[in-house]
């Protein structure tokens, strides 16, 4: 009998040790789990319910069904904000990929002092968006801004930039392109991962620089382009800080810089229409999910991995 108990004791001790390790792991993870449930899961689930109510910060909401969603589709400013956001995303995302890849290829050259050049192009991403907006308000000022002063020096009359409904969104795209350094770093990492054997084989076959770029570099860089495309879409559709800071939240001129998240923010914290804002948030979530799913579906046709 004693032998049987002795034979079982190692298993019991091992099981007890595993239980203690599991408990210790959960205790260490508990602050994060509580934070996840309290600050992410609960607000997420609550917003689904609130989107069907007229809830505000000042009073509890009454269930009104799909009224918020019906009102949104009849709201002119809602459609203006969608147009502005899609305009920005459709131009900024492709341009950020084109300029990002081109800049990464230049910064990938074996030139003395390249580390300094890489640092210079990355520095704008470290500037807070509020400071960046204030800086560009001065640069693009139509009377005494740096850009129009340079254009005037060569005999070109500069546009009104942020003071024009036609030029306001292109101005914002220009500002945003100034801060693509983070994406460039990711492209540089992708370029360094491409084996030099491909280029050596292409040189033996007499391939030109353009042929190597479009036959080797771009195809093998598509996994990184795919990642930055997804992140670019998500970021562009949530554009907020730059236009809000530049216009003091007004979206002027003539609502040309009223973006979707700005209008959502106004409804939530200026008009205290939390239910209405929750409905807007879920529509944005659905749009982002659909676009992301579309990109994932199309990736099978244009994303290539080494060794495939």
Automatic annotation (TrEMBL):
Domain ABC transmembrane type-1 as annotated: residue spans: 82-295
Gene3D superfamilies tied to this protein: MetI-like
Domain of life: Bacteria
Membrane-traversing stretches: 23-45, 86-107, 119-139, 171-190, 218-237, 274-297
Broad class of the protein's primary localization: membrane
One Pfam family recorded for the sequence: BPD_transp_1
Protein location: Cell membrane
Transport as UniProt keyword: yes
Keyword tags: Cell membrane, Membrane, Sugar transport, Transmembrane, Transmembrane helix, Transport
Keyword Transport: yes
Topological category with respect to the lipid bilayer: Multi-pass membrane protein
The family this protein is said to belong to: Belongs to the binding-protein-dependent transport system permease family.
Protein name according to UniProt: Multiple sugar transport system permease protein
């Amino acid at each position: 009998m004693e032998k049987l108990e002795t034979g079982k004791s190692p298993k019991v001790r091992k099981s007890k040790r595993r239980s203690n390790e599991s408990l210790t792991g959960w205790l260490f993870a508990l602050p994060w789990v509580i934070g996840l449930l309290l600050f992410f899961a609960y607000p997420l689930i609550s917003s689904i319910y609130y989107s069907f109510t007229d809830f505000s910060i000042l009073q509890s909401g009454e269930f009104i069904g799909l009224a918020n969603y019906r009102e949104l589709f009849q709201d002119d400013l809602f459609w203006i904000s969608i147009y502005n956001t899609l305009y920005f995303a459709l131009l900024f995302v492709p341009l950020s990929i084109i300029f990002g890849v081109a800049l990464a290829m230049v910064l990938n050259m074996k030139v003395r002092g390249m580390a300094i050049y890489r640092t210079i192009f990355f520095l704008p991403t470290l500037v807070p968006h509020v400071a960046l907006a204030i800086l560009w308000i001065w640069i693009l000022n139509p009377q005494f801004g740096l850009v129009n002063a340079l254009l005037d020096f060569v005999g070109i009359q500069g546009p009104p930039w942020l003071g024009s409904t036609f030029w306001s969104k292109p101005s914002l795209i220009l500002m945003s392109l100034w801060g693509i350094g983070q994406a460039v770093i990711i492209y540089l990492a992708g370029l360094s991962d491409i084996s030099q054997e491909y280029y050596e084989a292409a040189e033996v076959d007499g391939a030109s620089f353009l042929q190597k770029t479009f036959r080797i570099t771009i195809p093998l860089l598509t996994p990184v382009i795919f990642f930055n495309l997804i992140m670019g879409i998500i970021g562009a559709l949530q554009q907020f800080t730059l236009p809000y800071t530049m216009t003091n939240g007004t979206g002027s001129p003539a609502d040309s810089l009223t973006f979707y998240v700005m209008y959502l923010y106004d409804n939530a914290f200026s008009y205290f229409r939390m239910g209405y804002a929750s409905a807007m948030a879920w529509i944005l979530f659905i749009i982002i999910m659909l676009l992301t799913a579309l990109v994932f579906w199309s990736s099978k046709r244009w994303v290539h991995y080494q060794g495939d």
